[in-house]
């Protein structure tokens, strides 16, 4: 049975019980009032005209009203009565001198009428005065009939009004039910209409809409992750299949005797093997970045940046890589030094590989609202907005033709993003075609040390090679490579580290 039907039935039943209770109470009160009135009349009769001894004489001027029955029982056993009715009251069990009682008619009367009667004794004569209750009972039955008619009409009105009101009150629930059915059918964009928040339905609708929004977001996120994983597996398979296909091709080429250039075949095999090795290493690095616990300690970002710049200059000989500390103090963050080193190095490597041969790199350090900003700025070719919006996705490359002669595995920036998020930070990129790109890593700053060792304010040794040492305080140190002039430190852009050293992926 529907809820609205249950509510209407419950409303009618409760209302009916209330009306019945009220009717019974009214009838009982009315009966008591009428019987008390009859009792008063009987008492008045006993104390008045019924006391005379010649009440049955012809000379009686105060003849009793016809609705009364008078019975006198004399000491000699004689019984005289005056009764205007066909029935007679049963007076055998009356208590002399007691209050009026309700008695039935005698069996000889063949009547169901009730009487109110009382008996008194005076000078040995028992006087019984009784009154038939037919008129009072007719009045009470009429009252009950009127109450019944009123109850039926009222209950019908209550049922109709209750059905309309409950149907109207439950209309929002039907809308919620319909919306839920449409959502279950797959339409996750559906929402429950808003109702006033001070109502229960309004609060329910608001809670449902919030739940539906979170559900839709979760479903879309799950679908996105599933699609991303599917694409990741497909791209990884393709990336691994490409060098394997090349390896097999060159091997079969040599076996078939099509070429005798062993050096060329070996060099191609070595190149494809290296490419596949780099890809596998990047995949492992990405997996480790997402699952490895960090060794969190205070890290001097300036010192770290100088170290990364030195490593990058060793790997990319002759390229301009600068460090500029634009903070008023020592930029310190809590993090894993090796992972932070990997973040900055990957960003530098990305800028040098894709920015062009003339691109210059600057590592800028800033502070903003309790955060340390590490900016890796290149003066390379830049990117259009469509590319920059996807640059941190796995296996994403600007060259959709999948040529890999100059490109990497497409995992470097994905690794960077994962590591930055593990440190509780964020990364963003701003780029303009023909101008360059700026990658900004935002990390929560740690408390600055109260003092630094005096030795740190002395001459700091810069990376070896053709670097020129310069005096600079720790907070103002700067390392520049290439032919840069000014108060900051300069470097010729070469390092003693061998060119075969590769930066950490």
TrEMBL record:
The protein's Enzyme Commission number:
2.7.13.3
Biased composition, class Basic residues, residue ranges? 472-486
The Histidine kinase domain is annotated at: 235-447
Query: Per its UniProt entry, which superkingdom is the organism in?
Result: Bacteria
Q: Where is the HAMP domain?
A: 167-220
Q: Which Pfam families match?
A: HAMP (PF00672), HATPase_c (PF02518), HisKA (PF00512)
Q: Molecular function terms in GO for this entry?
A: calcium ion binding; phosphorelay sensor kinase activity
Catalyzed reactions per annotation: ATP + protein L-histidine = ADP + protein N-phospho-L-histidine
Q: Where are the transmembrane segments?
A: 144-166
Against SUPFAM superfamilies, the record matches this protein to: ATPase domain of HSP90 chaperone/DNA topoisomerase II/histidine kinase, HAMP domain-like, Homodimeric domain of signal transducing histidine kinase
| Disordered as annotated region, ranges | 446-505
Question: What broad class describes the main subcellular location of this protein?
Answer: membrane
Q: Where is the composition biased (Acidic residues)?
A: 447-461
Comp. bias regions, Low complexity: 488-498
- The protein, known as: histidine kinase
In its UniProt entry, the species of origin is given as Corynebacterium stationis
């Amino acid at each position: 049975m529907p809820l609205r039907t249950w509510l209407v039935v419950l409303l009618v039943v409760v209302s009916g019980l209330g009306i019945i209770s009220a009717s019974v109470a009214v009838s009982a009160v009315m009966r008591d009032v009428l019987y008390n009135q009859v009792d008063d009349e009987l008492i008045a009769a006993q104390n008045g005209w019924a006391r005379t001894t010649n009440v049955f004489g012809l000379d009686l001027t105060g003849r009793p009203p016809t609705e009364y029955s008078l019975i006198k029982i004399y000491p000699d056993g004689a019984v005289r009565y005056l009764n205007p009715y066909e029935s007679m009251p049963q007076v055998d069990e009356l208590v002399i001198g007691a209050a009026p009682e309700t008695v039935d008619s005698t069996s000889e009367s063949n009547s169901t009428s009730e009487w109110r009667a009382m008996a008194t004794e005076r000078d040995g004569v028992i006087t019984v005065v009784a009154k038939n209750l037919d008129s009072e009972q007719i009045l009470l039955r009429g009252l009950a009939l009127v109450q019944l008619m009123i109850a039926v009409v009222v209950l019908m009105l209550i049922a109709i009004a209750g059905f309309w009101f409950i149907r109207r009150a439950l209309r929002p629930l039907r809308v919620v039910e319909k919306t839920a059915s449409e959502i279950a059918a797959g339409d996750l964009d559906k929402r429950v209409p808003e109702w006033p928040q001070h109502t229960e339905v309004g609060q329910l609708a608001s809670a449902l809409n919030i739940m539906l929004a979170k559900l839709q977001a979760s479903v879309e996120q799950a679908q996105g992750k599933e699609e991303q994983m599917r694409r990741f597996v497909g791209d990884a398979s393709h990336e691994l299949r490409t060098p394997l296909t090349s390896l097999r091709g060159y091997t079969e080429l040599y076996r078939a005797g099509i070429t005798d250039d062993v050096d060329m075949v070996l060099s191609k095999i070595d190149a494809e093997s290296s490419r596949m090795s780099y890809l596998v290493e990047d995949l492992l690095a990405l997996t480790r970045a997402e699952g490895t616990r960090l060794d969190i300690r205070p890290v001097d970002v300036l010192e770290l940046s100088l170290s990364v710049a030195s490593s990058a200059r060793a790997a990319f000989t002759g390229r301009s890589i600068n460090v500029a500390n634009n903070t008023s103090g020592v930029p310190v963050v809590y993090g894993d030094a090796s992972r932070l080193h990997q973040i900055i190095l990957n960003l530098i490597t990305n800028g040098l590989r894709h920015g062009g041969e003339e691109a210059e790199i600057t590592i800028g350090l800033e502070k903003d609202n309790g955060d340390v900003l590490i900016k890796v700025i290149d003066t390379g070719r830049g990117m259009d907005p469509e590319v920059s919006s996807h640059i941190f996705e796995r296996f994403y490359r600007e060259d959709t033709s999948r040529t890999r002669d100059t490109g990497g595995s497409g995992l470097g920036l994905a690794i960077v993003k994962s590591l930055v998020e593990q440190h509780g930070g964020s990364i963003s990129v701003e780029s303009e075609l023909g101008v360059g790109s700026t990658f900004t890593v935002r990390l929560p700053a740690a408390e600055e040390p109260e003092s630094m060792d005096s030795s740190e304010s002395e001459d700091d040794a810069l990376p070896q090679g053709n670097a020129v040492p310069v005096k600079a305080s720790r907070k103002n140190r700067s390392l520049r490579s290439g032919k840069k002039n000014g108060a900051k430190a300069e470097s010729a852009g070469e390092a003693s580290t061998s060119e075969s050293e590769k930066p950490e992926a």
